[in-house]
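My current task is to audit a protein record that another person submitted. Please read both lines and tell me whether the tokens look consistent with the sequence. Do not assume that whoever made the record got everything right. I have pasted the whole thing underneath without changing anything:

===
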Amino acid sequence: MEFIFYRYNHAFYVLKPDAIRDDYREIKDLGGDAVGFAATIEDVGAVPRSILKHIELMRETGLRPYFTFGRWGGLFAAAAVNTSSRRTFQHRDWWKRDPEGNPPGALVCCVNNPGFREYFFEVAERAFAKFRPDGLIMDEPKDSNWPCYCPHCRKLGDPAEIHIPTLAKFLGEVCTLFKRTVPGGATYLFHMPWQEPSFYEATAREADLDYLGVDGPTCRQVKENGADIGKKPLLESIEVIYPVAERFGKKKLVLPENFDVPAGEEENYYRNARKVLQTRPDAVIFHHYGFENEDPDLIMKHIARLIGEFK
């Protein structure tokens, strides 16, 4: 069982090597095998040497660096402090459209738009070649439930019918590009739990995807205003996605969400996350200390217990 830690607070623009090295040593001591680092398109262009320094420190500590897209084109969930890459706002013609021609909710780029595709793959290939990460994590690809009605999608057929297949194909192309650029690299994708099961199956068919999974809570999660997040529990979601992964020969990936955990729920987090790990996934992702937890130290102690039991 591989243990991966997300460390979103990279502060690429403020590099303090000793402090960062201590974080990576802690992750290694916890039993971590790899670190998922979320980089925005702006990070890739503005601070590549700082990112390379992070990767050097990871490897120095015995951790594998895994690249994670940070909201590229609004398509992925990682690094949610920014809504999308800057170029997304500069190119309205790249946006997904509803039948009336308006963006369907958040600003997300259409994977069938030639201009967006050219830009995305050019920057992705440059990042993969520059940083040479050992793995690629695609975090919650968005909007399988929102067909796009732009002219490019309409040209391909009925938007409601071609949307999921073309989105899955795009993600498969990303995996292929990564493996071509970084031979031997591994590809990971985890879904949101409320996506269409047909989207799970469509992504599972992509030959260059290695790990398929889902994220979700193992305890109550609460926003600052006191509202429950109400996301589908991870223990329920894996019952849907595990059979898909097994049918298509993919390794199983889970992310027990350790964020927005209110006081008093920490033991529930541990108990239910333990049940998830008892299903023997091939890879597990945790957030390093998470965010918006009332007692982040206690959450990390429980995660250390889990890794100690299953490593």
